[in-house]
Structure formats: C-alpha cells, structure tokens
Design brief:
single chain; alpha/beta; Rossmann fold; ProC C-terminal domain-like fold; 13 helices; 55% helix; 13% strand
Length: 272
Amino acid sequence: MKFGFIGAGNMGGAILRGALAAKVLDGSSTYICGRDSDKAKRTAQELGCGVFGSVEELSRTCDIIIVGVKPKDMDEVLLQVRNATTACALSAKVVVSMAAGVKIAHIEEMLGVDAKVVRIMPNTPAMVKAAMTSVSRNRFVTDEEMQTVMKLFNAIGMAVEVPEDMIHTVIGVSGSSPAYTYLYIDALIKEAVKEGMTEKQARIFAAQAVIGAAKMVLESDEDPQILCKNVCSPGGTTIEAVTVLKNEGFEELVMKAFKACTDKSKLMSGEK
C-alpha cells in the first residue's frame, strides 16, 4: 500500500515524520508533493521517501492520500485528485483531509465519485508524537482501511474514531486547547522567574507538572474535581491558589473560550 502526502508543512510534516519514525510508514512506499517543488524534494531527501512533481502523479500512484493544505486550497487540490485518474480507480483510494471547516459531504461532491473519505482533526503536539486526533469516515471506508488509517495516526499520539458531527467539540476540547495550556504554562513561568527561578528551570517545572496532571487524569478513574480536591490540604498552599482561581472565574473563562472556539468552527463550516 502506498501513502501520499499532499503538503508536508507543520501538521502534514509532523504526521509524516512521526509515522516514519514509528516505522508505521516506510520511505520506499511513501511519497510527497507540494506547491514548492524544491522544498518538497529537500524534505523527501531528508526523510528518505519519494517525491512527485504534481498532485496528479501522486494521486495516480498512491492508495491513501493525505491532504494537508489550507482550507482555501482544498477545492483546487481535490479537483486535481479527481482529474488524475478514472472514477473507478479513484473510488478505490482513501482520501484523508485535515482541513478545518471542510465537511466530508463537500469532499465527496468535489471528487464526484463514491469516494472513500476520512476527515481528521489532529493538534500541534503531533510534532512531538503526542497528538490527540479525531478520525471520522464516510460510509465507503471499510473497517480494514480504517484500521490502516487509525494505525497511522496512533503512531503520532492517540487517535479515536468519532462521528463527524462531533468535530466542533473536538476542535474546542483538543484541536485548539494546546493554545490555552500554553498560556497557562507561560503565566506560571513568568511568576516563577519573578521569584528567582531561571526561565529554563521554570519551563521544566511548569511543563512537567502539566504532563503529570494530564497523566493522572488519563490513568486514574477519579473525576478531575476529586483529583483537584485531593491536592488541596486544608489550610495549605494549594487550596489558597485554587480558591483564587475559582473566585476569579477560571473554570467559567475556560468554558467561555471553548464555546467561542466551537462557535467559530461551526461558522467556518457554514453552520449557525
């Protein structure tokens, strides 16, 4: 089975590098192409995979086509994929899209056949093989093909299949939420530096604390509120900090940010 990446920028490149490093993909059966052909050639040489000069060439050759271009460029690329081969041949391929706001139904319409379409929503921690990726498929994608796709995205973190109508929630809870977490970590770093810690040390302490807390949530059966309570000894330091956060509306502010994110996602998809 041959894999093709149309666009290997920040997200597409992170997925490609992670899957190659995890040995889920093999360079001899993996190909890329991009708008900047020289950059694509350099990337292919660096990673030990093949390169094509056009979307059409890649589409004719590859069985699973991962499209990693901006939403505004999707229609142009999908038409090139469609025109690259016969309808019969195209209907045997799986087209994977990571474009925000571009629904499976629109991709099906652009491809013009009983296309096998998978829509994913990863996040930027894919760059360090710690992504959270949602995976949604249309009715033409077989279970066997879905297993291949899931294996690819589990190689760069964790992947879970969800119905496409959950995509807006996914964007709010994991697609965009690393940005919220970076703000939180940055605030801790700044205050730690004020108290005399070096910035390098503060980055390590703050980031590792977030990793540990997240690991507790994933590996414990306890509700996050209980985990929080367990850290807060009466009259101790943690309860003082948590009381300030609660009084200042920390949880409500996060919820408000989540809703703004999901509302924007719906707007981008043409929904109210």
